Amino acid sequence: MAAPLRPAPQQPAPRRPAPAAPLGRDTSDVLQQIMAITDQSLDEAQARCGAQAGRGQKACPELPSDEVCSLQRALRDQGEDRSCPRVSSGGVEPAALTRLLSHRLAHLFPPQACREFTTHVTNLLREQSRVRPVSSREMEHMVGMIHGKFTAIQRQLKQSTCEAVMTLRSRLLDARRKRRNFSKQATEVLNEYFYSHLSNPYPSEETKEELARKGGITVSQVSNWFGNKRIRYKKNTGKFQEEATMYTEKTSTATKVRGSGGQSSCQSTPSPGSCGPFPLTSGGDMVLTLRTLAFLQPPPGGVCLQPPTHSSWQRATAPQPPSSPAGDSGSFNSDVSN
DNA sequence: GTGCATGATTCCGT
DNA sequence: ACGGAATCATGCAC
Known about the structure:
- It contains 13 helices and no strands.
- By secondary structure, it is mainly alpha-helical.
- It is rod-shaped, with a radius of gyration of 34 Å.
- The structure holds a DNA duplex.
């Protein structure tokens, strides 16, 4: 990040001995010097920003390094905030940036600072009015100058803080853009779940967590994967026929093997995959257990106990039955041909 | 280098 | 908040 770019504090001109000059003149001089220093800092900072931008660099964040660090911390914390999944999965949202900006500005430049300084200067002038005449016009002029300066500083701070935040944000986004293909293990786990729940490929939060754990990826990545998969499957069902068949066969075979083990059926399940612990084998292959099948199969009475499905998905998808090897309707494979 | 596959991001509707 | 759709950006085989 940018190094602190504040100029070395300028030494104000040595003050003349008080008795040798009129008090009013002295005070004005000091104030003029303060204003000059502030002006110089702002102008120099802007000039530097302009020069950097001209060299193709990002505008310099006119913030001390500790401020940048805390901004980085804040952005990182935002990303880890589980209450805000959009942030963690898709970058820092504008509202979060605005909150962050307001927070940093309030910290850097408390709103009462201008009031306090104005009061301070006003008191000084009142004190001076005991030894020299201080007109109300002079008082107003001074207050006006202070307000003007504070506004300028605030504007500068706002701009530089905003730039710093945006720079950090773009860096974080760039880092996230770096894509790596999932491992074979992760893809298998996700595909097996997808094709075995083809009529309703919307894993619950718990299932996503389990899939993420099994695949060694994050829950956000699981969500992204299912989002992409649903869209791409729907767009080109034919292309996925082979894949569907492969995973269908795989899961049905695994089911037969596990089915002989005999497992109790799940009586009430709110969503597929959330029926007790997600049925994954320790070897990494995800298989449907009888409990999941019991959920997917229509009950003897004919009333289907499927969870609320996404009608748009069912309406839009009319997948060709992938040459089902089993072909028994009502079984797991019927799910695929739905 | 090119084209496709795929994970990530963004926008928008519900 | 979540999902669909479009899009971007990268990985990878050729």
